[in-house]
Task: inverse folding
């Protein structure tokens, strides 16, 4: 039974697979296995996998293409390790001591559900930018406090997280209805119930290239936005079911401001990742159970939209949306003051 299982999903990445796997096989920590999860890739992945002649490498080829989330979950279910690490075939570990450091950190903190580090992005010209940094010092993050950060967006790099097996067994696997934001939901759900270890040194390399799955996601803006708001609502409900009232409040605020910014910036700036009013109302009717909750979110959204019009010196439109905000939440004093005072004073209140 290896202590660490690497799950390496591979689809159309045969030319990069050996680089990833060899970065794992050369680790100083040797008690590990590597599951190469070939999702019926049409390239020469089987040929490349056959060259990886190490008993710790297990090659699994799906008979049909499962899609990335089902492939991830299949690999996680087949893994035997105490710690599970999912890393795409186009990424790699940066140094031979990475796994040793990750295991030591988790062994030292049995209350932690996962450990992660920043990644260093790189392309054909070399290393470019640091991503996913949460400071320059190692730290043990209290899970529910860390959710205040995660509620603002996913800042845990996907290939740089090693998870305790029990998190997948007891909390959740990848949800199949969140193809664009499933990893964000996992990091958040795990942090609701466990602490998190952060190692400040970037020990994983994240390859930037034309076939990046993340780039593909960003091209489908509407679906990405739909998944992101779904994660926020799902985390709010999960926090409520866990009786974590303070966390539920964090997500209630995050939901309101997600809607507010995405609606306002779609209308005022034609932001491609924004939401139309029709999309906003459809999403709200899907997720918000109580009329009072819907009214509060509408009020915050309309008021923020009015703020954008004031910033653009469109006082007429701003007053229209402030009135609509007050119709939803009549006791909102700040919005009332913005509506009643001259435009130059209202702008100061933004």
Result:
């Amino acid at each position: 039974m290896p202590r660490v299982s690497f799950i390496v999903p591979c689809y159309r990445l045969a030319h990069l697979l050996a680089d990833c796997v060899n970065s794992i096989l050369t680790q100083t920590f040797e008690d590990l296995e590597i599951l190469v999860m070939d999702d019926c890739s049409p390239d020469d992945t089987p040929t490349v996998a056959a060259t990886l002649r190490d008993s710790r490498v297990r090659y699994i080829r799906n008979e049909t293409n499962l899609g990335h989330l089902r492939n991830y979950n299949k690999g996680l279910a087949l893994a035997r390790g105490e710690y599970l690490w999912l890393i795409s075939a186009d990424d790699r570990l940066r140094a031979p001591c990475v796994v040793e450091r990750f295991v030591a950190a988790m062994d030292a903190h049995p209350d932690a559900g996962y450990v992660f580090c920043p990644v260093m992005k790189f392309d054909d010209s070399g290393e470019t930018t640091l991503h996913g940094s949460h400071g320059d010092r190692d730290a043990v993050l209290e899970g529910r406090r860390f959710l205040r950060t995660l509620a603002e967006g996913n800042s845990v790099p996907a290939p740089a997280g090693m998870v305790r097996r029990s998190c997948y067994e007891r909390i959740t696997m990848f949800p199949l209805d969140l193809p664009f934001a499933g990893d964000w939901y996992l990091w958040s759900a795990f942090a609701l119930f466990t602490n998190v270890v952060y190692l400040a040194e970037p020990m994983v390399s994240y390859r930037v290239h034309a076939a990046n799955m993340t780039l593909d996601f960003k091209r489908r803006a509407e679906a990405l936005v739909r998944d992101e708001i779904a994660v926020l609502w799902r985390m709010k409900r999960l926090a409520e079911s866990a009786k974590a009232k303070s966390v539920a409040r964090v997500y209630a605020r995050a939901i309101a401001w997600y809607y507010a910014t995405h609606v306002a910036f779609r209308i005022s700036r034609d932001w491609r990742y924004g939401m139309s009013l029709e999309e906003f109302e459809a999403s709200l009717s899907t997720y918000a159970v109580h009329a009072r909750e819907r009214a509060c979110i509408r009020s915050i959204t309309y008021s923020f939209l009015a703020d954008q019009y004031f910033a653009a010196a469109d006082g007429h439109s701003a007053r229209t949306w402030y009135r609509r905000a007050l119709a939803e939440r009549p006791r909102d004093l700040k919005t009332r003051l913005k509506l009643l005072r001259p435009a130059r004073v209202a702008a100061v209140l933004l």
The chain is about 50% helix and 15% strand. The first strand starts at residue 4 and ends at 10.
